[in-house]
Every structure is written in C-alpha cells, then in structure tokens.
Amino acid sequence: MTASSQPDVSRPDGEQADGGLVNLHEKLAGLLASRGQWREAYDHLRSALDLIYQDGDGHVPAVPEQLRREVDRLRREHAEAHEQSIRDSLTASYNRRYLDQRLMAMLAEQTGTLAVALVDLDWFKQVNDRYGHLVGDRVLQQVVELLQVELPEPAFCARYGGEEFVLVLPDTDQASAIAIAEAARDRVERHDWSAMAPGLRVTVSAGVAHEVGGSCENGAEHQLLQADSLLYSAKQSGRNAVAYREDGRVRLAGPAAARRSIADVRVAEHY
C-alpha cells in the first residue's frame, strides 16, 4: 500500500464523520441563506457548532474562522431582513405590522401612561392630482422626517396606511403628548414646501388619545379608534389642527383653539 493510499489514522472514524457533518451543515446553511430562509440557516449553523464542540475529553476545539465569518454574516443579514420586515418601504418609518405588535405589547405591559397621535395629511389627494405621485411620495417622506424631529425615546412613528401616520408616545402625559403633536403640526405647516414644487403647501391634522395604565380595557384598537375620532374632529373643525379630549369635550391645541366651531365626533358616529 502506497503512502497516498493509506487511511488517515490521525483522527478517529467518528471525528472524521463529525467533520463531514459539520461541512454538510455549513453548506446547507449557505444554501438556505441564499434563499432567504434565515431561521433554517441558523439551525444548521447551530448544529455545526454543536458538533464542533462535542469532544469526549471535554476539550473545546477552536471554531474554524470560516464558520465564524459565516455566522457573523448570517446574523447581519438576518438583522437587516428583520429590520426591512418592520419598516415601510417608502418612508422608512415603522409599518402597520410593527405598530400593531408594539402597541398591543405596550398596552399589556403599561403601568404608566400611553398616548397615540393619529396624523393625517390634509387634502393629500389634491397634492397627487396636481403635482403627481412622485411629488406625493416625496411629501410623505418629508412629513415623516418632520414628525420624527425631537421625538423622545422610546416613542416612534409608524405608517398607519396611505397618508396616515401614528406617533406612539409611551410614558407621556396628556399635556406633553399634545405639545409633541402640535409641534409636529407646526413644523409641517412652516416647512418650505415650495422648494419641492412651486406653490406646494402641506398641512396635517391629528387626534391625540391618552390612556392611563390599566384603563384601556379594549386595547390597541380602542385607543386607535379614539385617536381616529379626534382626528376626524380636527378635520371637521377646519383641518391643520390637533384635537384632544379634556373633561369630556373636544378641544384644539395651539392657534386652532381660538376657532369658533369645534366639531365633536364620537366613535359611534364616525363608525
């Protein structure tokens, strides 16, 4: 028997088999990752690591550098894929899926206060009709940037649908929530929209619903309905306003508070 044909006796048969399984798991992980099947890819990489760390003597072998790099790459790609799955593709704000999940979790865990401001662009259809959908898309993107200015942690902005957005404000009292929404409304109104398109003007209306921990028996849907009704009141009261309820009455924040006619739309009336 020649030297080249002699079997490798430096490693036990079981170790050679384990090495083959490690290689197989690595290849399967790479294939699954290329298809976007991140969870399955992770499972195979975990199996590969388990085999590498199995040793009857209790010795922990070094993890191959290639496997380390593969694990790091898959982690990064998985994180990126997850981030994309919870973001709105146009505005990069959080999407409705993330909003629903986080709002329900917050309400379930909430012991302090939670406010939501439902924000809608005024006359947005006219913007699309007059300036085109490309300009309309840019308007949505800019509005999101303006809504998120100085938004306190852990508050966030999410796209509710179409030209509607939600500001979720945990641990925020009613006065602060109203002030945040009114400041956002004012920023949108004062923004130089003519730089985007001559004659363009954009305003928003908002409804702010505030809950104390444990007081919202019907959960996220109830609070969003309250905010939606207040948004509708702001629209019916002349638009470009922030509406909220105090002592059972609908009020408007900022300069709009001086308006003579303020609509009071109840949830049952709106739906």
From TrEMBL:
<dbReference type="InterPro" id="IPR043128">
    <property type="entry name" value="Rev_trsase/Diguanyl_cyclase"/>
</dbReference>
<dbReference type="GO" id="GO:0052621">
    <property type="term" value="F:diguanylate cyclase activity"/>
</dbReference>
<dbReference type="Pfam" id="PF00990">
    <property type="entry name" value="GGDEF"/>
</dbReference>
<dbReference type="GO" id="GO:0005886">
    <property type="term" value="C:plasma membrane"/>
</dbReference>
<dbReference type="GO" id="GO:1902201">
    <property type="term" value="P:negative regulation of bacterial-type flagellum-dependent cell motility"/>
</dbReference>
<dbReference type="InterPro" id="IPR029787">
    <property type="entry name" value="Nucleotide_cyclase"/>
</dbReference>
<protein>
    <submittedName>
        <fullName>Diguanylate cyclase (GGDEF)-like protein</fullName>
    </submittedName>
</protein>
<dbReference type="GO" id="GO:0043709">
    <property type="term" value="P:cell adhesion involved in single-species biofilm formation"/>
</dbReference>
<dbReference type="InterPro" id="IPR050469">
    <property type="entry name" value="Diguanylate_Cyclase"/>
</dbReference>
<feature type="domain" description="GGDEF">
    <location>
        <begin position="112"/>
        <end position="247"/>
    </location>
</feature>
<dbReference type="InterPro" id="IPR000160">
    <property type="entry name" value="GGDEF_dom"/>
</dbReference>
